[in-house]
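Re: the multi-chain job from yesterday

Posting the exact lines I submitted so nobody has to dig through the queue logs.
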Amino acid sequence: QVQLVQSGAEVKKPGASVKVSCTASGFILNSYYIQWLRQAPGQGLEWVGIINPIDGSTNYAQKFQGRITMTRDTSTDTVYTELSSLRSEDTAVYYCARVRRPGMAAFDVWGQGTMVTVSS
Amino acid sequence: QSMLTQPPSASGTPGQRVTISCSGSSSNIGGSSVNWYQQFPGTAPKLLIYVDYQRPSGVPDRFSASKSGTSASLAISGLQSEDEAVYYCAAWDASLNGPVFGGGTKLTVL
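And the result, structure tokens for all chains:
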């Protein structure tokens, strides 16, 4: 079964960091790029960034520059996104999704989402 | 503030045809393909339409879409109660160098 499986919910304090994983199964991870998006409670979708699993190259949305790091582990078909200096506004469900190539907004397989709560 | 503009809500009765609009600019819809997503509460979005009007396998042909210039629309015919969801449009934005989304349209089946 083609799917992306994400790590579980996280609760963090302001200023901390969070690392969310996204593991591919049923398909070859290196054949796709992985996008990260987030959705704050009751809000719409926001792009966070993209990673190329083949070489680990990344492109981040400007608002997250300096706070976001995306990596991959090809041995486990897993990509990671780590967001640092967390603030309450980062409370959201974080999704990974696959896309054939950059420049497209057609994400055909999504992870189940990881709820990240930032609260003191 | 979303870069693509959608109406916040839409409604229809079973069997009706409803349309949802999505307005953008030359840096996104005007220069890239439009995609549509369907999202139910507590679940991840599902790709409904890609590359302006293509349907992934398994999506009923009751769902159709079109694009003209910097605007696009999603049409749902033969409305069913299970179509009640939030619908998002999305397109690649050349100035952002990333995807942009509409704010979502909550469809209510009366």
